[in-house]
């Protein structure tokens, strides 16, 4: 029986992940399907986007998308993530970009083995201290080193902007309880968490399996976001607070949006996550992720799927 509609693409016809546009952000438009292309329509007209060229479609405020468009994304191995303005909030997502479970398996394996978890945690701290050997430091020493770095950053930006700085002080459930700079920092960090969360789910990794942070559903989000606070959210928050805004939360969110508008943070986040979890040789490439389907064996190795392993013996089922 012939199935109506445009047939899904065959696997060999799909673009490799490295040849795709990693993220496309749309807002205030209607997304539909025209053959094997997505269409985005607003008051300026309609744009066609070949579905096979997309890694992830970020759906911002004011978007609506049809069932046919979502089906087309799925057929071409892409994902949709519902986000806030310019991606500074994460709301929900469809399927991940991952063609296999390689990344999440590596994440689960590393986080559940003390030595491997320590390697990843040290590598995370190492990204904050380029050129320094973090492999010889204990986690307590690394935490202390990171705390000193953050305190120094706060003091430097306070001096730069003329803001009186006392300490980081906030209540997660009471935004208004903090002074203006603490409110700005909280708003900026929340935006960064949304951006990082978007990348984590798009790659098929688990937001709750953290290496430095633990026990929270967004532990891995906090791990990765901490890599970028020094250059994105901390300076943005001090800049906004120094201008005495009337709505510090909204103004900070817009400032973070403008700061990440070029998308470079998304590309860096993807690369950092893959490097941390797959641990390539120093200076070496990370192998492309290929779709695989095997069966687990107690030996620790996979055996091919799609085969009948019956040896003709009655095993009593």
From TrEMBL:
Its EC number is 3.1.-.-. Its cofactor is Mg(2+); Mn(2+). Mn(2+) binds at residues 146, 213, 226. Keywords: Antiviral defense, DNA-binding, Endonuclease, Hydrolase, Magnesium, Manganese, Metal-binding, Nuclease. InterPro entries: Cas1, Cas1_I-E, CRISPR-assoc_Cas1, CRISPR-assoc_Cas1_C, CRISPR-assoc_Cas1_ECOLI, CRISPR-assoc_Cas1_N. GO terms for biological process: defense response to virus; maintenance of CRISPR repeat elements. GO terms for molecular function: DNA binding; DNA endonuclease activity; hydrolase activity; metal ion binding. CRISPR (clustered regularly interspaced short palindromic repeat), is an adaptive immune system that provides protection against mobile genetic elements (viruses, transposable elements and conjugative plasmids). CRISPR clusters contain spacers, sequences complementary to antecedent mobile elements, and target invading nucleic acids. CRISPR clusters are transcribed and processed into CRISPR RNA (crRNA). Acts as a dsDNA endonuclease. Involved in the integration of spacer DNA into the CRISPR cassette. Belongs to the CRISPR-associated endonuclease Cas1 family. Homodimer, forms a heterotetramer with a Cas2 homodimer. This is CRISPR-associated endonuclease Cas1. It comes from Virgisporangium aliadipatigenens. The gene is cas1.
């Amino acid at each position: 029986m012939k199935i109506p509609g445009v047939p899904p693409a065959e696997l060999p016809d799909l673009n490799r992940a490295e040849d795709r546009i990693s993220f496309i952000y749309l807002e205030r438009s209607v997304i539909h399907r025209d053959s094997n292309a997505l269409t985005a329509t607003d008051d300026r007209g309609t744009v066609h986007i070949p579905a096979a060229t997309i890694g992830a479609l970020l759906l911002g405020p004011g978007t609506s998308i049809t069932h046919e468009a979502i089906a087309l994304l799925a057929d071409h191995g892409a994902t949709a993530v519902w986000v806030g303005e310019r991606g500074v909030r994460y709301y929900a997502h469809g399927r991940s970009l991952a063609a296999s479970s390689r990344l999440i398996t590596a994440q689960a394996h590393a986080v559940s083995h003390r030595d491997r978890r320590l390697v990843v945690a040290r590598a995370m701290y190492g990204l904050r201290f380029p050129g320094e050997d973090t492999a010889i430091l204990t986690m307590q020493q690394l935490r202390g080193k990171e705390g000193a770095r953050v305190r120094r950053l706060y003091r430097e930006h306070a001096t730069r902007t003329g803001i009186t700085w006392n300490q980081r002080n906030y209540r997660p459930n009471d935004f208004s309880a903090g002074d203006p700079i603490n409110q700005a920092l909280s708003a900026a960090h929340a935006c960064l968490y949304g951006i990082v969360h978007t990348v984590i789910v798009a790659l098929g990794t688990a937001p709750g399996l953290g290496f430095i942070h633990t026990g929270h559903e967004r532990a891995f989000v906090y791990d990765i976001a901490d890599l970028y606070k020094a250059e994105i959210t901390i300076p943005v928050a001090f800049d906004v607070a120094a201008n005495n805004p009337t709505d510090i939360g909204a103004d900070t969110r817009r400032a973070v949006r403008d700061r990440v508008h070029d998308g470079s943070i998304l590309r860096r986040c993807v690369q950092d996550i893959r490097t941390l979890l797959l641990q390539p040789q120093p200076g070496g490439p990370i192998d492309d992720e290929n779709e695989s389907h095997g069966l687990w064996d107690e030996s620790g190795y996979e055996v091919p799927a799609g085969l009948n392993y019956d040896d003709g013996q009655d095993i009593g089922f």
